[in-house]
Amino acid sequence: MKLLILHHHSREGGVNRIISSQIESLLSAAPGIDITLLTGEIPLVGGIHPKNVNMELFPPIFYMEKAGKASCHNLLDSIMRRLSVPALSEDTVIHVHNASLGKNPVLTYALYLLARKGARIFNHCHDFADDGRPENMSFLSDVIEGTFSEKLSDVLYPSFSNIFYGVLNSRDYSFLKAKLPESSALFLLPNPVHFHRNFPDAGRKAELRDIFSRLTGADMSKKLVTYPVRAIRRKNIGEFVLLAALFGDTANFQITLDPLNENERENYLEWKEFSDINGLNVIFGMGRVMKFQDILLITDFCATTSVKEGFGMAFLEPWLFRLPVVGRRIDYVTNDFINEGIVLDRLYDKLEIPSENGPVDFPHLSREEQMAFIKRISNDASVRDSFFGKNRFLKDLFKTVPPELIEKNRRKVMMNYSVESYGEKLYEIYKRMLDGVPGTFPAAS
């Protein structure tokens, strides 16, 4: 079996972490598999560089700028030459990540044409253009309907028997199932979570805490609350800063990674400057200086304030480091985890902020309104007391979590989201594709 994995780039980030896990798990489950990673960009610094696979730079599948018809046709020709027979053998499966997201509409169309010709394609959907991304949908329509004169609804999610689909959670399963014929092969494929087996001794932890303190100036007699994400808008960074304003007397707060996208940097820098000017205990970007595992080893709580997730790794991975997770609940993500027996009882549904029109959930405020409220709560004890009164669950947010609950959740994550079982599921799907076996596996409730 030959596997061709496609993604727009190999930068560090959520999708590429999954690609790394995909490769690792498959090499374990099927040692003889021949894997090529085809990527539109290989960054000069950082990024993923998986071992024991062929890694090929192919710029035509990188993010696409708006272009004229001639340029789109030339790009299509380049992609089709690389991905068509005889470039691909009979035993090849193409596993493409986010083919329908709209970052490169010509690639979306090329994959449709390949599927129509019989290529076996697994479309791994982490996100959807037609789920709150109107700019992506407009771009797809301009290229697919405007340039290639095809119906977008036919191209976005082809229903040929040789194209299979994978989604990350039950909400996305229902979302995509409604768009596909009943006979389509749709798989619920939760992301795997890496289990770190080699934990350092107490001496090494003390050394790491000392390093962190020297690099940041943080008072390590306080708890350390880590938000292990890249600080983009949907991560709701202002709410994390609000928590720092509320609990800064007893804890330091940190967000691990800066945004890579230039469109995200302005919002990030505004919050960074605001936190610095107002003396809030928020540390930004230590993921550039220290290893992710080392940061979590000196952390006391992990927090998430995100308002939208594809899978929700931040709700699971910390438990493997014996770290409780606190913060904002996302029902369509967390319900899957709770159904697996994972206890997530330190999550809240909303943070009520008083306004002229009644209580408003914090993310619904503008950035300026959020900053103004954080200033008020930092400088006026009565405002602070009133806020705690309306959001009573906050007082126990960072209360010690029983060790037996932490250990229970850790075991549940290891049992249900292991890298090993992920590779076995993928390999079974690929075999079904090559054998021409339709249907859904594993079934989603």
What would your notes on this structure say?
Helix 2 packs across helix 3 (105-116). The protein folds into two domains: 2-192 and 418-435, 3-Layer(aba) Sandwich (Rossmann fold); 202-416, Glycogen Phosphorylase B (Rossmann fold), CATH 3.40.50.2000. The protein has helices spanning 14-29, 69-83, 105-116, 134-147, 152-156, 170-177, 202-216, 237-247, 262-277, 292-297, 317-320, 331-339, 367-379, 381-390, 403-416, 419-435, and strands spanning 2-7, 34-39, 54-57, 92-97, 120-125, 163-167, 185-188, 223-230, 251-257, 282-284, 301-304, 325-328, 347-348, 352-353, 360-361. The longest helix has 17 residues, at 419-435. The model is unreliable at 439-445 (pLDDT under 50). By secondary structure, it is an alpha/beta fold. It is globular, with a radius of gyration of 23 Å.
